[in-house]
Design brief:
The chain is mainly beta. The protein folds into two domains: 177 residues, outer membrane lipoprotein receptor (LolB), chain A; 353 residues, Jelly Rolls, CATH 2.60.120.230. Helix content is 10%, strand content 42%. The chain contains seven helices and 31 strands. A hairpin with a 2-residue loop joins β8 and β9. The chain starts with a helix and ends in an 8-residue tail after the last strand. Keywords: Disulfide bond, Signal. This is Peptide-N-glycosidase. Pfam families: N-glycanase_C (PF09113), N-glycanase_N (PF09112), PNGase_F-II_N (PF22252). GO terms for molecular function: oxidoreductase activity, acting on paired donors, with incorporation or reduction of molecular oxygen, reduced ascorbate as one donor, and incorporation of one atom of oxygen.
Length: 557
């Protein structure tokens, strides 16, 4: 009997010892998604009785990509500090002394063992996500995040039942590494500023235009850095773009607000790819025909003066900014309108090239519009543009140069608006990136009358659709100067031919298949409406040929 009592107390002592952690320790956590290990690296936590550091192997080995983030948590004080490495020599930090204390949990009558420790469950809901926290009271407070730091030692966190962060190893260490304290002198900032600094350091931003005025004013002159065409409604300048890795996503954005113009206008952010931007700038300034002189071995366009490549095709709203004083009950106008679109497919036409970039807004107002525009380059492991991918502008009815073509007459002609091009090499999986908007702002104009767009490749119909937008009423708060009618609708509410006041028009991609080397034609046919008095209809259309250059020994049949 004495032996049995002795064995019982020995077991009690063993369990008690197993449940106690003598700090400092290093805890490794692994991520699991739907029961399978995640490809993200493990979380490392260094903890003692006073604080714990949340970091990772790559950060500890100085191999992590910027920006890096680490957390120093002091559970007993309910305080944590986020420390970001924005670049090799630039750090920022922000401290929060309230969030930990505000955490609320529902304690669930469930237990389980993790790494030999008896754990209890606490549950909470964050941003509509159900979070289960498994913790043990083992003598220290630590966790793989800020969540649950007051509970004890968190060994597992489960989000929505399918994403798990679980402790896989606990190691005794002599002390917390000194290198973790090296980042503490980081510049302290408020939490919003900290988040903004970290966000902006995650991508590369290329400014194209910064608060420029796009207006109608013959007195405004060009300068050394900016060419003004069409009495100021078109701005063009030269810019050198960085090399864009093939595993990146590319976005373009435009911000616009009215400085006087009250109407909805067609706007385009565009580039003119050229091997001689200075010569093209001179030709544009002289209002003469220009050739882009793009020396490539893939494609020749029969009309190189039209190779203007649209990045964003947008429509300004009715007077946003300037006319925000036109108050209406329960309507609070936006300050400006923001257009942003992904243009990853255009990387082959832009990466590392010296190009001409331009913005145009067709308007007749001296105040016009204030415009800013940018490109942003984002790493993306899930994206990989195939080698030999190309993108060439084939046609664009928005006249930038002095081509003199009557596009709308061509669009409704028997053969449609035809563009001839020659492929020096076969093109696999060819697509046409097509943008179209119809205009004519009276009741019988093409702006308000659905019209089919039909496209032909080498005389054969490849695609036909009727572009139309029915969601224009969603953008009412961007249209303070929009006219209001007796039927209770505002002008900006009406459905239109593939656009609304205050939005960008999405391109569509038309599959063309594999194209052989040699001459081809693309034709666009639209039944453009007839003029009525001084009113006329028109269409803005553009097309970019995309695909992968075929290897010589693998020509399409």
């Amino acid at each position: 009997m004495k032996f049995q009592y002795l064995l019982f107390f020995l077991l009690i002592g063993f369990v008690s010892t197993a449940q106690k952690i003598n700090a400092p320790v290093k805890i490794s956590y692994q991520r699991f998604s739907n029961g399978k290990p995640d490809d993200k690296e493990n979380i490392w936590v260094y903890a003692d009785s006073q604080c714990n550091w949340i970091t990772s192997e790559s950060m500890m080995n100085a191999t992590a990509k910027f920006p890096t983030e680490q957390l120093r948590v002091e559970p007993s004080k309910g305080r944590y500090t986020q420390i970001a490495g924005l670049s090799k020599n630039t750090f920022a930090a922000t401290t929060d002394s309230t969030s930990i204390e505000k955490q609320q949990f529902e304690f669930i009558d469930k237990t389980k063992k993790i790494l030999g420790y008896d754990c209890k469950m606490a549950k909470t809901v964050i941003n509509s996500n159900t979070i289960e926290v498994w913790y043990t009271t083992a003598g220290i407070n630590a966790a793989p995040s800020v969540l649950g730091q007051k509970l004890g030692l968190v060994l597992e966190v489960v989000r929505n039942g399918n994403y798990v962060i679980q402790a896989i190893k606990i190691e005794k260490i002599k002390k917390i590494p000194e290198s973790l304290n090296a980042a503490l002198p980081a510049k302290p900032v408020d939490k919003v500023t900290y988040r903004d600094l970290v966000w902006k350091s995650r991508f590369t931003r290329v400014n194209l235009f910064d608060n420029v005025q796009v207006n109608f004013d013959p007195s405004m002159k060009s300068n050394a850095g900016m060419l003004r065409l069409n009495d100021g409604s078109t701005l063009i300048k030269k810019i050198k773009l960085p090399e864009i890795p093939k595993n990146c996503q590319l976005f373009a954005d435009v911000s616009e607000r009215s400085l006087g113009d009250a109407y909805d206008r067609t706007g385009v952010l565009f580039v003119i790819p050229t091997d001689d931007p200075d010569a093209v700038l001179k030709a544009l300034a002289d209002k003469s025909e220009y050739s882009q002189n793009t020396n490539n071995e893939i494609l020749l366009n029969s009309d190189p003066s039209l190779q203007t490549l649209e990045l964003i095709h947008f429509i300004t709203p009715f007077g946003i900014g300037k006319y925000n004083d036109l108050e209406q009950k329960n309507l609070k106008w936006q300050d400006s309108v923001y257009y942003r679109q992904e243009i990853t497919d255009l990387i082959p036409a832009l990466s590392g090239k010296e190009i001409l970039v331009g913005v145009t807004i067709g308007n007749y107002d001296k105040g016009g519009h204030n415009v800013s525009a940018n490109l942003s380059i984002h790493d993306s492991d899930g994206i990989m543009i195939p080698t030999n991918t190309v993108a060439f502008a084939l046609f664009n009815s928005s006249q930038i140069g002095a081509s003199g073509r009557e596009f709308n007459l061509e669009l409704k002609s028997g053969d449609g608006m035809k563009t001839a091009f020659t492929l020096q090499k076969p093109l696999k999986n060819a697509k046409l990136r097509y943008i179209t908007t119809g205009h004519g702002g009276w009741e019988n104009g093409d702006e308000f009358i659905p019209k089919p767009n039909t496209l032909f490749l080498d005389g054969n119909k490849v695609f036909s659709f009727t572009p139309w937008r029915t969601d224009c009423g969603s953008y009412r708060l961007s249209n303070p100067a929009s006219g209001n009618f007796d039927n209770g609708l505002s002008s900006s509410d009406y459905s239109r031919s593939n656009w609304c006041p205050g939005i960008a028009t999405n391109p569509i991609w038309i599959e063309l298949g594999d194209l052989s080397a040699g001459q081809h034609t693309i034709s666009v046919k639209i039944p453009v409406g007839e003029p009525e008095g001084g009113s006329f209809s028109s269409w803005s259309v553009s097309g970019v040929l995309e695909g992968t250059v075929a290897e010589e020994n693998n020509k399409p049949k």
